[in-house]
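Sharing in case it's useful to others searching the archive later.

Someone asked me privately for the predicted structure of Two component regulator propeller family protein, so I'm posting the question and my answer publicly. Question first, with the sequence:
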Amino acid sequence: MTSLLIILFSIFMNIVRMQSRTVAQSWVYSSEYDFILSKTEKQGLYNRIQVAKKANLVFIASGISGIKIVNPQKNYAVQNVLRTNDFIESFAVTQDANYIFLSINGTLTIIDYTSRSNFQKVSQDSVLVQNMEIILNNAETVLFLLQSDGKVRALNVSNKSNPTFAGSALWHQTQIFNGLISYDDKWLFLCQGQKGLGIYQIKYNKDGTISLDLAGAFLGNQSGSYAVEMTTDLKYIVNIDNQRGVSIGDFTLISNSNGYYVETNYTIQIWWPSNITLPAPYSLCLSSDNNFLFMGVLAQGIFIVDITDKSNPQLYQQIVVPYQGESVKLSVDESHLYYANGQSFLAFPKITPNLNNQYLNLFNKHLAHTFSWSDTYHYWRCQIDDSNNLYYGSFDDDGLWILDINNPQDIKVLVQRFTLPNSTANIDNIIFLNDYQYILVPVCDGENVLAVYETKEILTNKLQAKPLQMIFYPNDYYVVDSDLNEQLNLLVTAVGSSVVFIDVTTIGKFFVKSVWQFEQGMKGTCTGIMFTNGNQYVIGSSRGYGYFILDISDLRNIKKVYYLNSFGAENLDSSSVSNDIGYFIDGLQGVIIVDFSKLPQINIISQIQLPGWSNDITFVNDEKLMIVSTLEKGMIYMIDISDIQNPFLVSQYTYLNQNGMSSCALKDFSYLFINNNIGVISLPTIGKVQMHVEVQEIIGFSSTINDYVYRKRQITDSFLVGTSINIDIQFLYQPLDLVVDSVLYYKENSLTPLPDWITYDPDQFCLKIHVVKESIDQSNLDSSLLNVFVLKTLKPLYVQDFYFKNQNCLTDNYQNWLIFYFIRQNGYIDDQNLVNPNLKLSIQEEIFIPNVSQDDQNFNTCISDQVKQILLNSIQYSPIYLFFKTSLIYNQNPPNKIAYIQTVATSVSVNIIVQKLSGKFIAKNQTGANISLNEEQNNILITGTVENVNKYISGQIVFFVLEGYTYNSIQADLLISDQINYDLSLNFQLSEINFIKEKSPVIKNEQYSLQSQFNHFYSDGSLQILTEFSFSIFQNTFLSPDVGQVTYTAYIHQGDEFVLLDSSYWIQFDTQGNKFYGLPPQKAFRSSIKIQVVGTDGYSSCSDTFDITVDQLPLLFVLRLIVQIVGPLIGALGMYKYREIFYNSIFKTKNRYSNVNALIKQKFVLKVPLISQDLKKAKHVIADLIQNVNKEQGSNAKKIGLRRLVKLATVLKQSQEQGNIKNLQDVQQEIDEVIDDLQVDQKIRKESKNIQNAQNNKQNAQQSIRRYQFPNNLNADMIDITNQFKDKLAAIKTNTRNTKIEQKYLNKEGRINMKLVIEDILIYNKKYQKPDKKKESKLFREELYNKKSNLYKCIKLLLARYFIALDLKTNLIAEYIREYGKKNCFLYTPNDWYKQFVKIVYDENLDIHGNVISWPKIQMNNNRIGSVLKHLFHFNTKFINLNSLTSKGINPYLLKQILIADALGIDLKKSSLFPSYGECLHLKPGDLRSVESFKFAPGGCCFSLKSLLNKEYDPYGPKENLYFPSWLNLSIQRGVIILSGTPQKLDIEEILIRFYGLQGYIYRSFIIRVQSLGSNKSKNRSNTPKNQENNIDTSLEDDEDSIMQISEDQYKNPKKFADDYNMNSCQSSHFEQEKKIKFLNESSKFSKESQAHNENISQAETPQINQLQNTPREQSDLQQISLNI
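And my answer, the predicted structure tokens:
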């Protein structure tokens, strides 16, 4: 009884639902919105949509957020928002969008929106109305307010500024949920919930009022009313009950009642597309054609229902959207569907559906039926007459069969085993004429070849049918194939070894017109025949022989004109879409697609090889598909031939071990009939479950919206490996209760569970796929591979599904209930009415149903078959076809010559391999790409990001060809891998790979011959004997365009050959610095040698020579000759023995330093650091560091010495000091050499050239000659020099620190990150070559981490020199201070000019290891520096310290470090004669002979000569280096000489200190002045009040401090300054008195004139200062800079 109630309830809930297959529409609405507007306030719920159709604007009520106005024509931009204090739910708007009607504070308010920018309240009703629904008639004259108490209040709004009362009504005193005005404005519909739908007739009165007459109702006892819509023809109303579903009523029952009140019921009482999901519709609208209903459903989204048949609604589509179904509307043109669900407003676009129906569905194998009536083994061929639903089967030895296929699942035999009497012919081919009106049947009776019948004759009389004609042709074989020409008047037939042409012009008078016999040597029989375009040729096939072409232009003289050998030539067919295409069905080779455009020549277009013996083809879908039947293996294969050049297998169908002989299909391709050795298989090929599929590719995640970002794709696109896609599935015309049982993956002719790279989301009906390489064909990476995903769905079954109308087994309602009950009770379907997904029912199995089955077996069989069919049809397999393709693509000729490799992956590797010993790849480093070479260099591997690898190879890889090979003959294997795709393995000739080039040879730089270089340094290539010389050749003397770095080797000419220049010659060559050096011996005088230099880049070489002439005598040698010539007198003087006297007298100013003060009773300390070894180590450390950083960054530039780089920054200063540059051209040439040596790019050359041209316009001929020489007249020319620097500064850009070195080691303030520097030094672990041992950087760890150590100081300050050379502006400022200091060093010697700007203080402090600190403390005198820089810059405020320069683009930190480096003497200069730099000596302790003290010894007869010979001082003690003043001590400790002591009052005197080298040369001299504390106002200087300590920089380097105190007053009063520093008469010889006076008198004049010139710099015609203009600036250049000490 319970089961019966369940059945009755099911019947009640599901009235007759004939779910016959309905073809999908030409449109769907996308499940993915085009636009979304999310709520911004908690109570800002989107609840009502109104479309102003004339204005094409969308108005959206959003609760407390007001009414938002959206413009679809502007990408749904929110045009305006109308805000009130109310929660807005209902409103109305005119179609032109000029007026809005809404409730404000409970009263109707009319808003003017004509301006489209502002809202203007024009009127307001006087009556308070609560919870109203507002509707406006179509004429926009009457507004209806539907109230919560059931009252209707109507207002005349013809005058928007003065609405008036028009009428009222009351049906029931319950809430009115919604309402509707009919399209003709004559009917008012009130939705009052369970009371039903009330209908009023509206009558319009002349006075502007209306009358509302209750005309009828659809009562709510069966269906309540919450919203309603009406068709435009006023015939039907569609009502929704949010608890029951949809009802459809016939409105004409009321509209045609002639004014009588009518209560009626709905035609469709309750309809809902699900028996499981509860009804919950809340909003609705209709399409303009009244055929589709759109419903907003709670938590389920949008239901689109086909109501074309108002008695049979069908769910067409569901768009899943969460939350409420508040409002649904269509856009003006219905191109978008608008939906408000409370949380958001969404716009869904209308699109063309992707139905996945491009292929036949071969997966519903369980629905196939096999019909086997004959005993024959060959169900050979078939043809279908679609107009009559007839199947014609040529069943070989069992004759002709004709079948009724009206129901392909229940085929009926009409004619069987039809053959002619006395004929032995097998029926393998039948011919139809006149659209199946006539049929030609093969005959083999010794006289005839074909019999002509009327088709109806055979259908009527069957075996007794009489032929119209017998076609005479005596033979012993029969027709196996045939074809008609285009004119349908000539038939060609294949008869044994003959090709027979029959004239079929006149019915009943057919005759054989011509016959062509196989030629001698042709094997087998003719198995296929066809005409070709123009009927000029006939093509035949012969199994075991091949394909042949006959020229039939003259039927009396038929000629074989072409032959194609094949042992499998089975048959052939022509194309119906192109006359130039044909198909050869080749048993062994599959199907061959051929080109007939150049007959009789045949060209093969493509071929697809299939298992088994290819026997027959059937074309499908306008010849885009081909069904191939195969024997021996398989059954049928479906081939995509839409691209005839690239056919591919889609899927196949097999059943047990059966094969396929032929196939034929219905015209709509809904069924395919397969003939095989068992029978005829009827297979449905269009599934009953239609799906629309949308594809979205995930392109990233957005943190803004906290969701993935998608891009819409087409289902026909090819999706790349590595991408992630979502396949959104929408079922069309399916019940809502349809269940997806499983999703399967079709692979290798079987359905398997989904692999792990595919998941299915059943809630969203979504396949989520991450495309992997296993989804593509590794053997054919050039083509996309079809992947098939199959959805297995189960449709629930209900009682109405078992209504049988078959005449053999008609059932009544009671029998239908019994059948359904039996099916459920016996487990065929479960409690949810779903069939067992693994259900299998054999043909023989019969379902016997008690109380239904009868004694009539036919009835029982019919019922059983019908039930089985219903059960099996509820299971459907629906495929989704997607194409996947490799994302790893190699483009041999990319358009931009960059993107050679494309992939979705982030990284890639490229491996290129050539035969060993054929050549070598030359690797170059590049940032971001890792390069590795094997030992033989025939295998190069490049790895990195795709961008970096492409960048690397686009710069061209260089290949060097070894002897015995040519570049064009070498083969290369190219292997590309990205870890997500299958590797690309390609083979090319090396010359075909565009990103590889053959290495260019090393060439001579014609601008810099060796001879011209040598002559530039040594005039006419001449040297002095007994005088050391050195000459470094330019690094770019030889050029290697592809390798860059060239190594040089020197040879000397001996006899007829050049031999290696080794240590046995007086001239030597240092390969590290490319420097020649040596001491020409006396015997080399008047001799000449030829030197050859060979430059090689490791692969090829080049050479050049230069001549050296030794024909000059040094001064000392001349003196020695004088001694020898003038005899004993000169010899007695021992002049040569005391040659140091001449050196010391000639160069006495080169080693002289200004005085040092020692105050009595105060500790005196003076240190002279000896930094030769530490400086050398620091050079190597920095060189190695920069080289490794560049190498690490992928730099491929050539190395360049740090010394060379600094020389670039100081080249002008050197040119002035040396004085050996003769003219402007020489100077420019030297600068060009430096530029070329650094390989500065064209951009920097251009910048330098622009600066130079700007300056050249200011110069006259005289100034051009003096271009790099600063004037000797200080005060007259200092203004010009300043202006030159100003011009230079104006032309130089601020350093952007865009080099890798700067970015790594300079912080944002421009300071050197020494911590990182030291860490990297230790990481790179530089090894230093020492005599008999190696020492690694890790062994210097203590020194490197000791900020007070000599090594640390040298590294830091040398790095500062390196970085400032990269900073043009800062370098220029440092040079200006240096030049200014040297030109104004009247109070100092040129050797310690820096003392104007810094204070040097010594102490005896120890470092953390207990060692004496070698370095003095250095502090900037900011006032003095500021007084100099104010000539270059205008400072808005007082110059405080160097940090003030930051705003000028100057790096104050580097500037300070360079001043400290100048003061300490840490530089890359190197001179054995003048090793004193700053406060340091560039010597080792063993290079000093002594440190001696002297007293001034004036007077005497030879004082002038003694003064000339620098002998005006006598030794302080009896022996050198053994006696100092008693208070002064000398000590040497770890790289520093220390003079210290505390003098007393009795020690007041002047002491000369000299440092002697091993040869007696004075390397440094200075005077220590011992004086009292108060003498010369020293005390004043020591105790300067703080208010006089103007702007003293107390910060040194990092943690260093200073106690120096110098005020600007000392420079304002030079006399006082001179006294303070004890510039007494004893020292006046060092500083000419007239210079003192000139300095005192003109210092203020210089300042004023400089300021005046600041205002008009451009007018000053001054010499150029170009010393920095060619320093490399761009990042690409700096990657080329490295150190090569």
